[in-house]
Amino acid sequence: ENSMFQFGKLAIQSTVSTLGTVAIAAQAMTNILENLNGIAAIGIGIGLMIVVGQCLGAGRKDEAIYYIKKLSLVSEVVIIASCLIIFILTKPITMLAGMEPASAKLCFFMISFITIVKPVSWVLSFIPPYGMRAAGDVKFSMITSCCTMWLCRVALCVYLCRIWGFGPIAVWIGMFADWSIRAVIFSIRFHSRKWLNHHILG
Question: Among 29, 23, 34, which residue's Cα sits nearest to residue 167?
């Protein structure tokens, strides 16, 4: 799965590299800031894997469901706070980094877009799957993640950039489509409880 994601990043980066220095600089800074506003919630997701694993190891499936819901809610609060903090700091950061005005303006535009959309779909596309993977539902998560990444994050980005002439915002449109579709699929999977049917080796 990680290998597939690296190939996907390479395909996206090769597309962005054709857009000019302004777009490349803006995209590079935006990518760093977007990683920063998600790192705390990812930490919660990793911790959730341990909690769910312990609950299921003790045979307490109801507690596993409870903690996935609870930590998803905590992650939502953290994502909203992180996105707002990064949004506020974006202009000072671009100034300190000495970015060209055009690149800084484009970066701020993309971060504004991320700040609005990320809290809507990111948590459901990432946090419950951490818990479901801990329950042994790895294959479903891997196939879903790889399919949505290639169909949305990569294919949509390349299509919008190369066919319709979108700038680096195409990267984030693809990313948001990826997150949204994954959020729907993983929500359905979570509520179906099929992920609880795997046999976990002690």
Answer: 23
